[in-house]
């Protein structure tokens, strides 16, 4: 039986490719969650008034890839010490959050966060939130699989935002 995971780690364009390429991943959808406006548009979310955050919903086969493995991949796409956005993207709609959909996912995420904090990899606290999943709303089609549809723009953005350099420096 397939399961889902929802992760917010800044711009959702940059959160698709790292999961999309893994065995056992059936689908990665860019969208919005955690806010109070049903079926928001990208335009609405970017105003910062909907309460939503950009996120990805990952459908996976837990017999091939575990939720624990997905959480480990998630950490390596983010700056877990920055609660107010990710890299060049600032504000609530870019905050880092692991949205759990079961008590088991919550326990795995909390344990993983505690292990990351204890590892000493970062000299600041790990501030990524772990919150219950809320309704997930897919973003417009042009945001889906952006790294495939607009590879040059995606690569320039990943580098220009500081994300790629941070990942190389802290997660290599």
TrEMBL record:
Reactions catalysed, as given in the entry: L-methionyl-[protein] + [thioredoxin]-disulfide + H2O = L-methionyl-(S)-S-oxide-[protein] + [thioredoxin]-dithiol; [thioredoxin]-disulfide + L-methionine + H2O = L-methionine (S)-S-oxide + [thioredoxin]-dithiol
EC number: 1.8.4.11
Pfam hit, one: PMSR
Positions of transmembrane segments: none
GO molecular function: peptide-methionine (S)-S-oxide reductase activity
Catalytic residues of the enzyme: 11
InterPro entries linked to this entry: Met_Sox_Rdtase_MsrA_dom, Met_Sox_Rdtase_MsrA_sf
Top-rank taxon, per record: Bacteria
Keywords: Oxidoreductase
Peptide methionine sulphoxide reductase MsrA domain sequence ranges: 4-155
Signal peptide: none
PANTHER family according to UniProt: PEPTIDE METHIONINE SULFOXIDE REDUCTASE (PTHR43774), PEPTIDE METHIONINE SULFOXIDE REDUCTASE MSRA 2 (PTHR43774:SF1)
Matches recorded under NCBIfam families: msrA
UniProt record similarity statement: Belongs to the MsrA Met sulfoxide reductase family.
Function according to Swiss-Prot or TrEMBL: Has an important function as a repair enzyme for proteins that have been inactivated by oxidation. Catalyzes the reversible oxidation-reduction of methionine sulfoxide in proteins to methionine.
The protein's name: Peptide methionine sulfoxide reductase MsrA
Protein's gene: msrA
